[in-house]
Amino acid sequence: SFLRLRPRSHMVPPPPHSIGHSKLQDQLGFQKRRNRPCLPLRGMLISVALGQVLSLLICGIGLTSKYLSEDFHANTPVFQSFLNYILLFLVYTTTLAVRQGEENLLAILRRRWWKYMILGLIDLEANYLVVKAYQYTTLTSIQLLDCFVIPVVILLSWFFLLIRYKAVHFIGIVVCILGMGCMVGADVLVGRHQGAGENKLVGDLLVLGGATLYGISNVWEEYIIRTLSRVEFLGMIGLFGAFFSGIQLAIMEHKELLKVPWDWQIGLLYVGFSACMFGLYSFMPVVIKKTSATSVNLSLLTADLYSLFCGLFLFHYKFSGLYLLSFFTILIGLVLYSSTSTYIAQDPRVYKQFRNPSGPVVDLSTTAQVEPSVTYTSLGQETEEEPHVRVA
Length: 392
Description:
Elements: H1 19-27, H2 41-71, H3 77-98, H4 105-133, H5 139-145, H6 149-160, E1 163-164, H7 167-190, H8 200-227, H9 230-259, H10 264-290, H11 293-299, H12 303-314, H13 321-338, E2 343-344, E3 375-376
Antiparallel strand pairs: 1-2, 2-3
Helix pairs in contact: 2-10, 2-11, 2-12, 2-13, 3-4, 3-9, 3-10, 4-8, 4-9, 6-8, 6-11, 7-13, 8-9
């Protein structure tokens, strides 16, 4: 989780020899701070609350998908993703199209179209693989293996975003995973529907593949919204996501779509699903920028519990006290993780340029050697507007 601005009186003025270093750090959205890593209580609670909003949106996505697949036999995961990407395209891609100058859609495509094309494909297939896994493996396996996204995000953040964690962060992560294990144990004890599990190995591999792609997508998203902008990220995801999901829909799912018994109820469920998914995609970059990709994925562990609590009333699931224990254990882990900020370990020069190589790069060759590390990130609540880094 990344948030928190200090008053300017708390900022450490850069020494004359590190002016270029500070400028690059500002472009990356990070602030230099004194050695004051602990977040205020209000900021910590905001971090946790923002993550729970995302969990509730995922709960809505899960409930509408469950009604579509089980009550109306509409198994159309690619079509559902296609609807979301179309909404992103209509809102964010068109916003980029009407912009002027170097933030215009065509200018962005000329500089880095292939990078967004790869990201759009990764995002689409991450969703598809996890949904497809439900046909082969058990719910318990999916819940457990989906946690693989957490170490993926941590490792990618460590090597590519240069984020460094403290002992309290790892303790918080372990507590969150223990809470998830408690929920899975409760599912087993109450005999909650576990899925067919007809080809468990295939299903487990699909989950691991989807979790890995989710991790790559989340860390890439964090980098983009910190160095470029949220609107650019969502606009490009909408453009390439709609393109690839449209192709995949035509090839793999057109027959399933023709079998859907269309009526107003099914239409309403598709609208509800699309609204929740669009809200998730639109709000997640805001939360990632104010917290981090790691914090967001820890927060999403509670999504299954929200779905379960709704299922107690809607689907008559059996209740176990372990579910409440699991929920509060995960929240405790989130509070622990959010209680202290992470930091950047090295000189930000090692960040790879997402922009074109021809884009402007801060010239640090004439500056003295910059001391690495103890620069704290803004890992608590952040009130400033996201920077718009202009590129030639």
